[in-house]
Amino acid sequence: MKGSAADMNARATRFADRPPIAFGTAWYPEHWPEERWEKDLAWMEKANFNTVRIAEFAWSTMEPREGEFDFEWLDRAIAAASRHGMMVVLGTPSAAPPAWMTQRYPDVLRVDEDGVRATHGGRRHFSFASERYRMFARRIAEKMAERYGDNPNVVGWQIDNEIGPPSFGPEAEERWHSFLEQRYGTIDTLNERWATEYWSQHYNNFGQIPLRATGQHNPGLLLDFKHFTTATWTDYVQNQLDAIRAHADPRQFVTTNTMFWNAGFDHYELHERLDLASWDNYIQDADPDWIANGANHDLVRGYKQRNFWLMETQAGRVDWVPINRALAPGQVREMGWQAVQHGADAILYWEFRAARNGQETYYGTVLGQDGTPAPIFNEIAKLGGELREAMPALADTEPVYRMAMLFDYDSRWALDLQRLHEDFDPIREFTDFYRPFRLGSQGVAVLPVDAELSAYPLVVAPALNVVTASDAERLEAYVRGGGHLVLGPRSGMKDDANALWPQRQPGPLEPLLGAQVEQFYALDQPVKLTGAFGAGEAAIWAEWLSPEAEDVEVLARYDDPAGWLDKKPAILSRPVGRGRITYVGAWLQPDMMRRLAEKLMADEGIGPILSTDSDDVEIGARSGAGKTVLIAINHGDEPQPLRSPVGAERIAGTVTNGALPAHGVAVFRVDRDMLSTSKGATH
Ligand code: GLA
């Protein structure tokens, strides 16, 4: 029976007869003599792998000369992989156009913002706007889909590989002009929205508008550049998606692997037509910040609000930071379980075996160049064994969320374009808010601003800088209907052309808040503040808030002496309808942020799934189909006490004398469902 899109919610693939969790690796059969394949695949089986991703950089092997295709090696590689029990994900090779193409048709090459064309030799050297390039990319994707679209061993497709860098050549410029025309309709509307009277920027027609991403340009133009790259990448992906869908079994999924906070395009929009989100999780530092990495997973899960694939993750170390230290023993397994806890239905390592040459010879691998296991092999195989045991429990489950946070690309870009304080990094600010909420609730959904929010008792938007009139309407309905909306500093300042709202912050949300921001201040040193939940400090940014409505409560004030901010309100809250809106006007330092988060969660009855005394211990749960899987991970170097949940069966990991060992994991199964947004503790 062919599955429907709904089956994709919480299962690695749409094939009913395939494992619900994929575990495997990127494999490059084209790097090795064929007689070696069997041995490599046998090692994969020993590593408990069930999946390989193939071909995403193999264009020059699949089409060695223009229009001359050779897929026989790939037929044999897929067949060999499936003999060893591997599901196959096929990558289209468009991240690496071959030399015959770039030499004969240099117009396919990317042009940077200064007009310099890329040269051949690396990857991603193509232009996302080139019609000719799209024709070639579509053709190879189509050939692959014709050949493998009904191959039952192929469970899905990855389009391209980590798309991102835009191009600025004449074709891009042409697309830019028609994009703007479509967005604004008339040049007068554009002039009005961008306020082009400023510095005599008035345009007579769309053809006059420069294609720029950086520099002293109108903020409306710079934000629209991001809208343009979103539209162009979406369309670029669609080109191959159409080619694949025309020939592929509907059970084969189509995805593209992305890079979490990558600022190149709006990931929500790009994923609208793809079946699932997948991403590449690398940690550059051997001392991972587990909460920040958890936020990365939650962000990616929010792209489609569905379980996702970890299409790549490191087998130990990376090769692109000054000191590429390996993760400590146990941390690769920890990262694997963390991904699963946050909603990954697949984990694939990059890469399987050290390539003999090429730009990434020193990367962490599962096998060495000699084809025998690297020291990390056993840890990966152990994780694979555990996942296999846990699969029946994990099947058809999704992460349990207690609350939500909003991440909005327009707001992030608008802030990045005009930080006012060099340290106002919107991702850092988001993560600072996320941290205590994740610790306290053990389940935070990260969502776009237009998501359905009514299931979440608490929704936090750390810096919702850009708010449109329709966003404001939806948020108001959420609050009036009983939700608690918390806005962070710099919220409600801009519209989606990056222009200031004519009223003060929070712009169209001002009537709902019954208050406004009198003035904002970039801080060169922290200011103190005191509130209903104790005293603390704010740094980088602070706003002076002014209540207007009578029922506005002041939750915190800046202390005296703080210059302009002396005794001024810093945090306000107001009951509205059946819900509440709170505005936090300052970037609170960790202590105070945590106390505020705890108060807000307590007010909404949000508690942990399983309480723990250590911030090194990450607890999270997946639930569905009448069962719940609770995953506890000790990310620290010391054992930590762990109370086993009542009525639970341990299905993986160890608890020794009531403690979770350093870098240890324990996984429990409980035979009942836990609703995704239920509030209180369940165990
Ligand atoms: C990315 C790419 C891979 C490889 C890894 C190594 O995720 O997709 O091809 O280069 O990085 O960091």
TrEMBL record:
Residue ranges occupied by any Glycoside hydrolase family 42 N-terminal domain in the UniProt entry: 27-389
EC top class named in words: hydrolase
Catalytic-site annotation from UniProt: 162 (proton donor), 312 (nucleophile)
Keyword Magnesium among UniProt keywords: no
InterPro entries: Beta_galactosidase_Trimer (IPR013738), Class_I_gatase-like (IPR029062), GH (IPR017853), Glyco_hydro_42 (IPR003476), Glyco_hydro_42_N (IPR013529)
Any one of the GO BP annotations: carbohydrate metabolic process
UniProt-annotated binding residues for substrate: 123, 161, 320
MF terms (GO), sorted A to Z: beta-galactosidase activity; metal ion binding
Reaction catalysed by this enzyme: Hydrolysis of terminal non-reducing beta-D-galactose residues in beta-D-galactosides
Alphabetized Gene3D superfamilies for the sequence: 3.40.50.880, Glycosidases
Keywords: Glycosidase, Hydrolase, Metal-binding, Zinc
Record domain Beta-galactosidase trimerisation: where: 403-606
Annotated Gene Ontology cellular component terms: beta-galactosidase complex
EC identifiers of the protein: 3.2.1.23
PANTHER family xref list: BETA-GALACTOSIDASE GANA, BETA-GALACTOSIDASE YESZ
Family, per entry: Belongs to the glycosyl hydrolase 42 family.
Protein name, UniProt field: Beta-galactosidase
Organism of origin: Pacificimonas flava
